[in-house]
Design goal:
The chain is an alpha/beta fold. The strands form two sheets. Strands 6-7-8-3-9-10 form a six-stranded mixed sheet, sandwiched between helices. The structure holds adenosine-5'-triphosphate. This is ABC transporter ATP-binding protein.
C-alpha cells in the first residue's frame, strides 16, 4: 500500500449544536482513488469540508503528507495542493467560464498547456470560454466545477458527487476526466453515489455511518460481496 497523502485521525466536527463527525479515521493512499461511501446524511460532505477548512474540527488531526492542517486557513490548504469540487459546484454564474477558471488558479496565471488539456477533456468549456457560466447546462456547469479544481496540478482532489443528476454520456466524460487525473499521479478522495462509477474508479473504499468510518478496504472486496454492501450501506452494488 502506498504512503497516505491524507490521514484523518479522530476528527470531530460540530455544526451548530450537532455533533456531525464523531471521530473520523481515514486514509487516502498516494496515487489512488479512494471512494467515500455511505447513506445520505452520514457526514461525507462534512468530512471533505473539514479537510478543506470550511468547517473546523473540534478535535483530531488532519495530516496532509504528514503536516497537520487542522488549523490551516483554507487558502493555504489550496496552495498546498488540495483541489476541492463542492457538491453545489461553487461556480460564479455571472462570470465567464474564463473568469471562473482564472479565479480558480491560486498560484498564478493559467498555464496554456494545462488549459488545452482541460479543453480536450471537456470540449464545451472551449466552446463557451467567453460565455457566462450561469448560461451553461447542468452537465457543463459540473465540467466547469471540476475543471476549476484541475486548472493547476494538485496533489489531492476532494470531489463531492460529481455525477449527481447527470445524463449517462456526461457521466462517462466525468469518469474519463477523473481517470486522466489519476493517470497523472493525483490522489483523489471521491464521494460518489453512482455505484457503477464508484466501482470503475475506486481503488480503496471508506464507508461512513453516523459520523464515523465503519469500514475500509479495497473496492474489489466490497464490489464482490453483496452481503457486505447490504450490511454497510443497505444497498447492493450488484448489477450496477
Ligand atoms: N449547515 C448545516 N447546518 C446544520 N446541519 C448540517 C449542516 N450541514 C450538514 N448538516 C447535517 O450534518 C449531517 C451530515 O451531513 P453531510 O452533508 O456531511 O452528509 P452526507 O453524508 O454528505 O450526505 P448526502 O449524501 O446527503 O450529501 C446531516 O445530518 C446534515 O443534516
Amino acid at each position: 500500500m502506498p504512503e497516505p497523502i491524507l490521514s484523518l485521525e479522530g476528527v470531530f466536527t460540530d455544526i451548530a449544536q450537532y455533533h456531525v463527525l464523531q471521530g473520523v479515521d481515514l486514509t487516502v493512499p498516494a496515487g489512488e482513488v479512494t471512494m467515500l461511501l455511505g447513506r445520505n446524511g452520514v457526514g461525507k460532505t462534512t468530512t471533505l469540508k473539514t479537510v478543506m477548512g470550511h468547517w473546523r474540527a473540534r478535535e483530531g488531526r488532519i495530516l496532509l503528507d504528514g503536516t497537520d492542517i487542522a488549523r490551516t486557513p483554507t487558502p493555504d490548504i489550496a496552495r498546498m495542493g488540495v483541489g476541492y469540487v463542492p457538491e453545489d459546484m461553487g461556480i460564479f454564474a455571472n462570470l465567464s467560464v474564463e473568469e471562473n477558471m482564472v479565479l480558480a488558479a491560486v498560484t498564478g496565471p493559467i498555464d496554456p498547456a494545462r488549459r488545452d488539456w482541460i479543453f480536450s477533456v471537456f470540449p464545451p468549456l472551449k466552446t463557451f470560454w467567453s460565455s457566462a457560466a450561469g448560461n451553461l447546462s447542468g452537465g457543463q456547469k459540473q465540467m466547469l466545477s471540476i475543471a476549476r479544481a484541475m486548472i493547476e496540478e494538485r496533489r489531492l482532489y476532494l470531489i463531492d458527487e460529481p455525477t449527481k443528476g447527470l445524463a449517462p454520456a456526461i457521466i462517462s466524460t466525468m469518469a474519463r476526466a477523473l481517470r486522466e487525473l489519476k493517470a497523472q499521479g493525483a490522489s483523489i478522495l471521491l464521494v460518489e453515489q453512482n455505484f457503477s462509477v464508484a466501482k470503475a474508479l475506486g481503488d480503496g473504499v471508506q464507508v461512513m455511518d453516523d459520523g464515523r468510518v465503519i469500514w475500509s478496504g479495497r473496492m474489489a472486496e466490497l464490489a464482490g460481496d453483496a452481503a457486505l454492501q447490504e450490511r454497510l450501506m443497505g444497498l447492493s452494488l450488484e448489477g450496477a
